[in-house]
Amino acid sequence: TINGNVIFNEQSYNRSTVTGDATYNSVSEVKIILTGSQEWGIINGIARGADGVVINDFTFMDSSGNNGTISGNPTFWDNSGNWGTINGNPTFNEQSGNQDTINGDATFNDESYNVRNLQPGTVDGNATFNDTSRNNGIVTGDATFNDSALNNLCSARTCIDGTVHGNAIFNNTSRNIGNVFLDAVFNNESDNWSSPFVLDHGTVSGN
């Protein structure tokens, strides 16, 4: 923990906590790209680039991740993830995922996920799941599932059933095996799935 302001030069970065402001002198276009196992840590103040402009453009690649607070619309690739708080509208691609809090709308593509780690991955807004992405966390707003996306059930003690507190739309061959608290619409070949052989179930509590 640094109890004050800090300056990061060259390839240095914050992986812990800064109670004041942070200046990244290697950033000239208010854009941060994290690679490898780098993490965006906690900055209680304001993060700025060398030109003094607030940093709000983040790209995470490889196994990097957000472990602090981001205000902006970050993009996640590879096996990167969010383990902190995002105040904005993130997009998750490939096998990246959300394991903490998003205050905004989220888009999940490819095999990405919203899932529980130490607490449920929560999208406090609306969410769109495309391709074979899955929800094993909580969406407080509405959700749309396209392609073969899943509102999934939990098959382990470390996760929860995918839960949508708002309305849900299922398109293409997407499937509900989790919980929808309001209304649901199923289009194309999508389904509300259950099996007589296991405790898997899809539940829609609305009309």
Overview features:
elongated; mainly beta; 9-stranded parallel β-sheet; 207 residues
Helical proportion, percent range: under 10%
Question: What value does the average pLDDT take?
Answer: 87
- Give the radius of gyration: 19 Å
The tally of strands reads 31
Reading side by side through the largest sheet, how are the strands ordered?
Answer: 4-8-11-14-17-20-23-26-29
Sheet of most strands:
9 strands, parallel
How far apart the termini lie comes to 51 Å
Pairing-aware structural class of the strands and helices? mainly beta
Outline: elongated
Strand content: 35-45%
The poorly predicted ranges are: 195-200
Helical run tally: 0
In words, what does this structure look like?
The chain is mainly beta. About 5% of the residues have low confidence. The termini are far apart. The chain has a 9-stranded parallel sheet with strand order 4-8-11-14-17-20-23-26-29, with no helix packed on it.
Concise synopsis of the structure shown:
This protein is mainly β.
Break the fold down into its secondary structure elements and pairings:
Elements: E1 6-8, E2 17-18, E3 22-24, E4 31-34, E5 39-40, E6 42-43, E7 47-49, E8 57-60, E9 65-66, E10 69-71, E11 75-76, E12 81-82, E13 85-87, E14 91-92, E15 97-98, E16 101-102, E17 106-108, E18 113-115, E19 122-123, E20 127-129, E21 134-136, E22 138-139, E23 143-145, E24 150-151, E25 163-164, E26 168-170, E27 175-176, E28 179-180, E29 184-186, E30 191-192, E31 203-204
Parallel strand pairs: 1-3, 2-6, 3-7, 4-8, 5-9, 8-11, 9-12, 10-13, 11-14, 12-15, 13-16, 14-17, 15-18, 16-19, 17-20, 18-21, 19-22, 20-23, 21-24, 22-25, 23-26, 24-27, 25-28, 26-29, 27-30, 28-31
